[in-house]
Structures are given as structure tokens and as C-alpha cells.
């Protein structure tokens, strides 16, 4: 936004209008004891040329995924974004569009959202999708609120211990002022999975829902159908958080009994953007449609018989009676949802499967090469994984996982994530994610970097 300065005459008119003699009088209400009586300790102002040079120097300190190979994961991934996604999503009618307050006058926006909903429902195997939410964790929390409303149970929401810790933290925040509490079922530290018996013991008649993640936080695959069957047998809803890229290869959640499916849609045509914005996916069974948060766009015909689109449901308190609202979500991630729609339309089912397969093959290649290095092994050797896996650093090396990663990163990589950021007891564990962008040559270089770090 441009800065529009006022002249002395402008300021004099403004002050006279509000009845004060000077700008200093506006601060008379602030006690003298807390007022700053010296100039701010700031460097002198720069000219535009000097300022631009300084900012370029500072920006050069950032080493993003375009500067070094990225093996980071944990919920956000460096997948390839086709140029057509950037080109189409940058068109003015999309890039500057905002919430359609006069919805039916915004047919292009509504159609784009409808196409997104259709793609998400097909991808997850569910019947209904909303118009998107802020990110994966907030989608999971909104799904939990849905479950409380659908089941009428207000005792607890269960999250299995292999659900992303940031999802669990968001659930806890959303439930803090509600009767329901969050209960976390611990995972087996030797397998990186949930024991069905442990889950069954935790669920009771007050449990509204169980939140699962497939693949889980460690990149591994749970016996998800068996776990869901346990939850549903006790009357609890099954909420499953998914990596949408994995659905090019793995079974759809709707096919193994999920009631509500959520996920982080960043990997579907959206750049990492230094951590955001992100895209929350939420789909469910049609029976729960009136408990869904956000918006739902529907397709109909106008009075000429032509196809058109309308806002079928608007469930926030701004649009309907407060007591009838299902959520206070005020908007949807329309631009990111559009990018995901373009991405999926470009790839199609076979293209998405190819992305998933290549990611899986290269992840397993990386695991094979890295575990051949003395001092590194798979933390969960019997855990099947999709594109992400956990390595254990042998204590005999005298290094923690974080120390090893620092040495690897210093050689020009984003080499992985130290898991002690979420699991303080796992100081010897780090996680490596491999997408279709990573080449065999980059994986070989990564292996050499780890070997050097552990030498």
C-alpha cells in the first residue's frame, strides 16, 4: 500500500477538527513514567537503491528448496508444481477474487470451488467435500467438533499417538472450553504403530471420535481398516488424516470405512512458501452434511435451464442464527484450492499414481542407501512406509540426530527433520522425506553427506 503523507496544513486542519492543539496532546493519557524520552535506536534511513541492495542481501541468506535438495517432510513436502498451475492461478480473476458475498454473481468462483469439491470427494472416496479450510490441523479439529455434534457424545475425542503432534495440539486448543477432553493413545515405540488392543481399551461409550493418520507421523502405514473397525464397533466416528498424494497409490479412506477424511493439501500444486499458506481438506459421508464447517457449493440450473452454481450451505454464524452455526470459519482457501484443482486436472488419476509411485520408489532407495552407512539404521524396520521414514543414529557415534543433521545441512542439503522437536525422548531419531523431485544423484550425494557427518 502506498504511503500518502500529509502536509503541515493537512495536519493543522485535522488537529483543529478534533479540538487539540498538537499531536503531542493525543498522548497525554499515557503516563509520563512509561513514555520514551529518547529517539529510537534505529539506523539512519536508506535511499531506495541502498535499501533494495540490503534487502537482496538479506534474502540471499534464505536457502529454500530452490537452492538445495530438500528432504524435509513432517506434513509439508517439496512436490513438483507444474508451470501451468502458477500461470492459471495467477490470472487476475482468480488471484484477486475474495469471498463471494453475493455468491450467485460470482459464477466463475463458485464453479472453481465446485470442481475442487468434486475432485476431493473422488480422491478420498467420500460423498461430500466442503470448499476447503485453513490447513490440515484445523480441518482435523473441525472434524472433531463435527463428531461431537453428530454423535451427541461429549466425553472425549481420542487421537492415536501416531497422529501428527501439531494436529493433536490443535485438537487440544479447540476443545479447551468444551466438555469433551482429548485423550492420546500411546504408540508402540518399537514398531511406530498403534496396538489395536490398546485402542480398544481406550474407547468407551463417551468417545465421539477417534482420529487416525495414514500414513502416520513416521511415514508408516497403520492397519487402518482394523483400527477403524474397532472405533466404529463402539459407536465412535473414525476421522482419518491423509496425505492426498498417497491416495494415488493407497486405498481411498472411504473404501476402508472412514466417516470423515481430512488432510493437508499443500502437496497438491502448492509451493512450500516458507511454511504457508496451507490448505485444509475435509470430506465426509452425506449423512453428516449439515454438520460440516465452512461452505458447500452446489450445481443446479437457472431459469433458462442452463447449468449454474450456488452456495448450497453456509454454516458460519455470520450467515445464519448463531445457535445454528457449526463453525466460525470465515472463509476458505479458495486460491490454494483452485491450485489443487488445476494440479489434479493436469495429472489425472494415472499422473497422480505416477507421482506417488516414484516418490515411494525413491524413498525406499534412499532408505536402502542411508541404512548402509555405519551408525544409521531404520528406527522401525518392520514398518512399511510411503515416502517418509525414520532413521536412528547409533549412540556409539557420540552424536545426536540433531548434530548429525546440522553437519549434513552444512554440506548443502535440507537433510531431514530431527524428531525431538515433537518427541523429546527421540534425540537419536530423524525423519527423511523423498518426493518425485529428488533424483538418484541427489540421493547418492545425501548418502555421502551422512557418511561424512558420521565419520
UniProtKB/TrEMBL annotation:
All residue ranges annotated as the Glycine cleavage system P-protein N-terminal domain in the record: 3-447
Gene3D superfamilies: Aspartate Aminotransferase, domain 1, Type I PLP-dependent aspartate aminotransferase-like (Major domain)
EC number annotated for this UniProt entry: 1.4.4.2
Keyword Oxidoreductase tagged: yes
Keyword Electron transport assigned: no
Biological process, per Gene Ontology: glycine decarboxylation via glycine cleavage system; nucleoside metabolic process
The reaction(s) this protein catalyses: N(6)-[(R)-lipoyl]-L-lysyl-[glycine-cleavage complex H protein] + glycine + H(+) = N(6)-[(R)-S(8)-aminomethyldihydrolipoyl]-L-lysyl-[glycine-cleavage complex H protein] + CO2
Gene Ontology MF terms in the entry: glycine dehydrogenase (decarboxylating) activity
Keywords per UniProt: Oxidoreductase
Similarity comment: Belongs to the GcvP family. N-terminal subunit subfamily.
Quaternary structure and partners: The glycine cleavage system is composed of four proteins: P, T, L and H. In this organism, the P 'protein' is a heterodimer of two subunits.
Job of this protein: The glycine cleavage system catalyzes the degradation of glycine. The P protein binds the alpha-amino group of glycine through its pyridoxal phosphate cofactor; CO(2) is released and the remaining methylamine moiety is then transferred to the lipoamide cofactor of the H protein.
PANTHER family: GLYCINE CLEAVAGE SYSTEM P-PROTEIN (PTHR42806), GLYCINE DEHYDROGENASE (DECARBOXYLATING) (PTHR42806:SF1)
Protein name: Probable glycine dehydrogenase (decarboxylating) subunit 1
Organism in which the protein naturally occurs: Isosphaera pallida (strain ATCC 43644 / DSM 9630 / IS1B)
Amino acid at each position: 500500500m502506498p504511503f500518502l503523507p500529509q502536509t503541515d496544513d493537512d495536519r493543522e486542519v485535522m488537529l483543529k477538527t478534533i479540538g487539540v492543539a498538537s499531536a503531542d496532546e493525543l498522548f497525554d493519557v499515557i503516563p509520563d513514567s512509561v513514555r520514551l524520552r529518547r529517539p529510537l535506536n534505529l539506523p539512519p534511513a536508506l535511499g531506495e537503491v541502498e535499501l533494495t541492495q540490503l534487502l537482496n542481501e538479506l534474502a540471499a541468506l534464505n536457502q529454500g528448496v530452490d537452492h538445495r535438495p530438500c528432504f524435509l517432510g513432517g506434513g509439508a513436502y517439496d512436490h513438483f508444481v507444474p508451470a501451468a498451475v502458477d500461470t492459471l492461478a495467477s490470472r487476475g480473476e482468480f488471484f484477486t477474487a475474495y469471498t463471494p458475498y453475493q455468491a450467485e454473481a460470482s459464477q466463475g468462483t463458485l464453479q472453481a470451488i465446485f470442481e475442487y469439491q468434486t475432485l476431493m470427494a473422488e480422491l478420498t472416496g467420500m460423498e461430500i467435500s466442503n470448499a476447503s479450510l485453513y490447513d490440515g490441523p484445523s480441518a482435523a479439529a473441525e472434524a472433531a467438533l463435527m463428531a461431537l455434534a453428530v454423535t451427541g457424545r461429549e466425553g472425549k475425542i481420542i487421537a492415536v499417538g501416531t497422529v501428527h503432534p501439531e494436529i493433536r495440539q490443535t485438537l487440544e486448543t479447540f476443545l479447551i472450553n468444551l466438555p469433551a477432553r482429548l485423550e492420546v493413545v500411546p504408540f508402540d515405540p518399537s514398531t511406530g504403530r498403534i496396538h489395536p488392543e490398546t485402542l480398544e481399551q481406550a474407547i468407551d461409550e463417551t468417545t465421539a471420535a477417534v482420529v487416525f493418520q495414514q500414513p502416520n507421523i513416521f511415514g508408516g502405514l497403520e492397519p487402518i481398516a482394523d483400527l477403524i473397525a474397532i472405533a466404529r464397533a463402539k459407536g465412535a466416528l473414525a476421522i482419518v488424516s491423509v496425505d492426498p498424494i498417497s491416495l494415488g497409490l493407497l486405498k481411498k479412506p472411504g473404501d476402508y470405512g472412514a466417516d470423515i477424511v481430512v488432510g493437508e493439501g499443500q502437496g497438491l500444486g502448492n509451493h512450500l512458501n516458507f511454511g504457508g499458506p496451507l490448505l485444509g481438506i475435509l470430506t465426509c459421508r452425506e449423512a453428516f452434511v449439515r454438520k460440516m464447517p465452512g461452505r458447500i457449493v452446489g450445481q443446479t440450473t437457472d431459469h433458462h435451464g442452463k447449468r449454474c452454481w450456488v452456495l448450497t450451505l453456509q454454516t458460519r454464524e455470520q450467515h445464519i442464527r448463531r445457535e445454528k452455526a457449526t463453525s466460525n470459519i470465515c472463509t476458505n482457501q479458495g486460491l490454494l484450492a483452485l491450485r489443487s484443482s488445476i494440479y489434479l486436472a493436469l495429472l489425472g488419476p494415472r499422473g497422480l499414481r505416477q507421482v506417488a509411485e516414484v516418490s515411494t520408489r525413491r524413498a525406499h532407495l534412499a532408505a536402502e542407501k542411508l541404512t548402509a552407512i555405519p551408525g544409521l539404521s531404520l528406527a522401525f524396520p518392520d514398518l512399511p512406509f510411503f515416502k517418509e521414514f525414520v532413521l536412528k543414529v547409533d549412540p556409539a557415534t557420540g552424536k545426536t540426530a540433531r548434530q548429525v543433521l546440522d553437519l549434513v545441512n552444512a554440506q548443502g542439503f535440507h537433510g531431514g527433520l530431527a524428531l525431538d522437536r515433537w518427541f523429546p525422548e527421540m534425540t537419536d531419531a530423524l525423519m527423511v522425506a523423498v518426493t518425485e523431485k529428488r533424483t538418484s544423484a541427489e540421493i547418492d550425494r545425501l548418502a555421502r553427506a551422512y557418511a561424512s557427518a558420521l565419520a
